[in-house]
Amino acid sequence: MMQPITFKIALFNDESDFRRSHRALLLLLEALCRINEDLLRTKACPHLYQSGVRYQPEDGTEEWLDIPHVIEAGVGDCEDLACWRVAELRHAGMKAKPYAKWKRVDGVYHYHALVLREGKDGQPVLEDPSHHLGMPAGTDRAPVPPPNPDLST
Asked: Do the bridges between strand 54-55 and strand 75-76 make them parallel or antiparallel, or are there none, so unpaired?
């Protein structure tokens, strides 16, 4: 087993840093999606919504979990669940990518990770695995900006 890897990245320092920080956050989410995709190519895992895991927010430091760690913990927060869902949708041949909305509360930026996927009519749809798995409505603390309709990854 390998020691945990910690990234220390200066993000959301101020309003002028938002665009760069938002792109960096999406790149990090994409990395977790691809790690999960790679796992799904080599190992059978339950579908997220049938796995029995539930949403649970983290207190303090963010720990981003891949699928096996979410299953082991029995819970995950927004980025863990959204990145698992993106990976399983892509594994099934569907277009999907991670999406983040944000809000500044008392000078601190809070984000909420979601899934941007293709709907049945081909139009982009935002899916929130956290709400499907127990996050109470209205608790994500982040407004929804308009989705980017580009589903290319």
From this structure: parallel
Reference 127, options 57, 78, 76; nearest CA is 78
pLDDT in tens, 60-76: 788 999 999 999 999 99
Question: Which CA distances in Å does 61 have to 14, 16, 76?
Answer: 20, 24, 14
CB neighbour list of residue 45: distance below 8 Å, 6 or more residues apart: 39, 51, 67, 68, 71, 88
pTM: predicted TM-score of the whole model, two decimal places: 0.90
How many whole angstroms separate alpha carbon 81 and alpha carbon 147? 19
7 C-beta neighbours (distance < 10 Å), count: 9
DSSP character at residue 60: S
C-alpha 17/C-alpha 35 separation (Å) is 27
